[in-house]
Amino acid sequence: MRTYGADEVREDSQWQSIDxxxxxxxxxxxxLVDVGATPPxxxxxxxxxxxxxxxxxxxxxxxxMVVPDNAGGIAFEWNSDAVFSLLSIGRDGKTKFSLFRDGQxxxxxxxx
Length: 112
Description:
Blueprint: H1 6-24, H2 42-57, E1 65-68, E2 74-80, E3 83-89, E4 95-101, E5 104-110
Antiparallel strand pairs: 1-2, 2-3, 3-4, 4-5
Helix pairs in contact: 1-2
């Protein structure tokens, strides 16, 4: 049996909250995006939920924000001091990780 520290329980709860929010996005007329923007498709939401499971299993810290990107994709954003990380899932399902330091682009990785 595995025991969890307070930080692990808090992070697990945050990941669960993110997954619940993504489930809510399946509902018709979910207020996700600005007028005229393309909402994420059900397939894109499913891919995002799979990424949540993968990141959670890797014990990655939960993102600070998960938002639709107004082009039919979903963005996971981490922001700490001088480092900003972005995991974007495009409408086509392609996933990309980008890293910025002090507001400058550092590198990106296509993850599939």
